[in-house]
Amino acid sequence: MLQVCYDVTDVVSPVVTNSSPEGNICDNDNDENDEVLDHFAPKAQILLVCCWRAMKEVSLLLGEITKRAPVKEKDQSYGLLSFEQFEEIGQLFTKILLTSKHRGAYELAHEGFVKLCHMLWRCEQGEIQRLPGVFLTKLLNDISSDNPTPWLCGTRRSAGLPFFFKAIVTTEPNTTGKCYFKSVMKELLKTAAKPVNTQDTNKDTTLPQVHARNILRALYKETKLGEDVFPYVADGVHVAVEGFLSEIWAVRNSSTLLFSALMNRIFGPQSVQEEKRRQG
Predict the structure, then answer these.
(1) Contact 111, 60 (CB under 8 A)
(2) Which of 77, 112, 146, 228 is 20 to 30 A from 13, alpha carbon to alpha carbon?
(3) If phi over 0 gives left and psi between -120 and 50 gives alpha, with beta otherwise, what is residue 82?
(4) What cellular-component terms does GO give this entry (predicted)?
(5) CA Rg value for the chain
(6) Average pLDDT in the 250-266 region?
(7) How confident is the model at residue 157, as a pLDDT?
(8) Cβ(258)–Cβ(216) below 8 Å
């Protein structure tokens, strides 16, 4: 079953990870190419729908398997999933979330990844329990570096990257003291505050400062984190306002979105504010 899921993912990945997953068909003005466009456009849409639905089913199925299947103990014959298999599934979810450009694909992968992380954090086997932290630390170190992995999506507000972080930190149990969440917030704020090298303007959407702001925005908006984010609100506002002065458009844009999320977190949505005014 797991191998079938891996094979399906390999087949549909070229479509959902394409920079234009909605279909990239030649755009010319002559009548002949108009006929080609009319012929292939519906097929491109059908292909896309089939691919992201296949990815959806794989993600949800793997999430259910990891949630319900018994863990295989070391040197024991009973159990279904071993440490190596949990690691493989986690790496697959990571790949889907970090490379998919289709919103439906990475949003549904997030649902399956949440189930996996929830189970891993609470597993009694130490090496399995540490897997979410391993996944998180590896990616956080990559983003914090001066040259993040180039295949991280720089458009679509970092695509599935914020969903990856949300899945891990929102399922982290209180017994850990939320240490991973705290380290993530500190490291992201530190990365977002780094000065941007103006020579990197040709890759402005893949800058670590942009990714950090997009992830922070998602974490500040996440209701499951409740009051955990409040100690980091002031630093977030500082980072957002500083970004308004950047010469790079992607930094200014992500800073604006971050600032908006922080205002909603501090004062509540506009509808709530208007209701308070009417009652006051």
Answers:
(1) yes
(2) 146
(3) beta
(4) cytosol
(5) 21
(6) 93
(7) 73
(8) yes
What was the pLDDT predicted at 235? Answer: 96
Question: Are the CB atoms for 183 and 226 separated by under 8 Å?
Answer: no
DSSP code at position 89: H
- Which residues lie closer than 8 Å to 147 by C-beta, 6 or more apart? none
**Res. 26 pLDDT band, cuts 50 70 90:** very low
Q: Where residue 162 falls among pLDDT bands split at 50, 70, 90?
A: very high
Q: What is residue 81's DSSP assignment? A: B
18-24 mean pLDDT: 63
- In the chain, where are the structural domains located? 1-18+42-127
Q: Say which DSSP state 82 is in.
A: -
* Cα(141)–Cα(214) distance, integer angstroms: 16
Taking the C-alpha atoms of residue 156 and residue 103, their distance in angstroms, rounded to an integer, is 9
Counting every residue written for the chain, the total comes to 280
Q: Is the pTM of this model over 0.90?
A: no
Residue 237 CB coordination number (10 Å): 16
User: 3-class DSSP state for residue 9?
Assistant: helix
Other CB atoms closer than 10 Å to residue 129's CB: what's the count?
Answer: 16
Which residue's structure tokens are 């399995």? 128
Under 8 Å between Cβ of 222 and 167: no
**Residue 224 CB contacts under 8 Å (≥ 6 apart), including other chains:** 170
Confidence of residue 27 (pLDDT cuts 50, 70, 90): very low
Tell me what percent of the chain is helix, strand and coil, each rounded to the nearest 5: 75, 0, 25
Contact assessment for residue 225 and residue 219, using Cβ atoms and an 8 Å cutoff: yes
- What is the arithmetic mean of pLDDT over 115-119? 95
End-to-end CA distance of the chain: 59
Query: In the numeric block, which tokens belong to residue 181?
Result: 């969440």
Give the CA distances from residue 2 to residues 8, 16, 260, in Å, rounded to whole numbers and listed in that order. Answer: 10, 20, 41
Report which DSSP code applies to 126. H
10: buried, middle or exposed (CB in 10 Å: 19+, 13-18, 0-12)?
exposed
